[in-house]
Design brief:
Blueprint: H1 5-12, H2 25-39, E1 46-50, H3 56-63, E2 67-72, H4 75-81, E3 87-91, E4 104-109, H5 119-132, E5 133-145, H6 148-156, H7 164-174, E6 176-178, E7 186-190, H8 194-201, E8 208-211, H9 222-227, H10 229-242, E9 254-260
Parallel strand pairs: 1-2, 1-4, 2-3, 4-5, 5-7
Antiparallel strand pairs: 5-9, 6-7, 8-9
Pfam family, one: Methyltransf_25
Keywords: Methyltransferase, Transferase
Protein name: SAM-dependent methyltransferase
């Protein structure tokens, strides 16, 4: 299947090499790891990391004893991930996974859904994840929340750019994102109930939703908290206590939706 050339170009330039390893993006990383550690079956369960990028999550999963296979459509990502101890990596598309069905103990989609603006493609990716998982296995998918782009635009000052307010306000209505990064690739941001509907239609009923960053990603001093081990643990504990509060889900930059097959 064909990947959006703008998205491919962004990632081939190394756009994902440091996003979750530096700055406030680390909050998304730590919180994703925190939630998954509580939900995944114990190691050495088999984890299929779909759209796993350069292996930022595959790395810690393999280090903790999981049997990890990473599938990603970007050659640079596969090349980098394959260097990680205990990680098998190969090219592949979330909408047509190059794996047999019913074998993975857990399937992770921690990036593909927000690069698939067309609903039919998102449903296909979720259906493929369900197919790849064994009966009783876990499917976990990350989505960008509908309000994240506007929050981020104010945080960084992008909203001051000419024409940017119209782009952000349209995204609130349609979910279609146009990146402010080089290349201007398109993405998709989910409404809070929309991910429930898509999971259900893909045969994954009653997903649980976890707000990953809460409001903390919007705090100006969040990097200071993440830089200090003690403060970081306090921050993660605070986020953990609020992660399923319905009134706060939309404040998070990302949600993790999780269902059993």
């Amino acid at each position: 299947m064909i990947m959006d050339p703008a998205v491919m170009g962004y990632y081939e330039r190394g756009g994902e090499l440091t996003r979750l390893r530096q700055g406030r993006g680390r909050l998304e990383y730590w919180r994703t790891r925190d939630v998954l550690r509580r939900l995944l079956p114990p190691a050495p369960a088999g984890v299929l990391d779909v759209g796993g990028g350069t292996g930022v999550h595959a790395e810690w999963l393999a280090a903790e004893g999981y049997d990890v296979e990473l599938v990603d459509p970007v050659p640079l990502h596969v090349e980098e991930a394959a260097k990680l101890p205990g990680v098998r990596a190969r090219l592949g598309d979330a909408r047509a996974l190059p794996v047999p069905g019913g074998q993975a103990d857990a399937v992770l989609l921690l990036g593909p859904l927000y690069h698939l603006p067309e609903r039919a493609d998102r449903l296909r990716a979720l259906s493929e994840a369900r197919r790849a998982a064994r009966p009783g296995g876990l499917v976990a998918a990350a989505v960008i929340t509908r309000y994240a782009a506007l929050h981020d635009s104010v945080y960084h000052g992008y909203l001051l750019q000419e024409g940017r307010p119209a782009i952000e306000y349209e995204a609130l209505e349609t979910g279609l994102l146009i990146s402010s990064k080089e290349g201007g690739f398109r993405g998709y941001a989910h409404g809070l109930d929309e991910i429930l509907t898509e999971f259900t239609e893909a045969g994954l009923p009653e997903p649980r939703r976890y707000g990953l960053e809460g409001a903390f990603w919007l705090y100006g001093d969040v990097n200071d908290w993440l830089d200090d081990d003690g403060r970081r643990e306090l921050l993660l504990d605070a986020a953990r206590r609020l992660e399923c509060e319905p009134s706060l889900l939309g404040v998070s930059g990302h949600l993790l939706a999780v269902a059993s097959v």
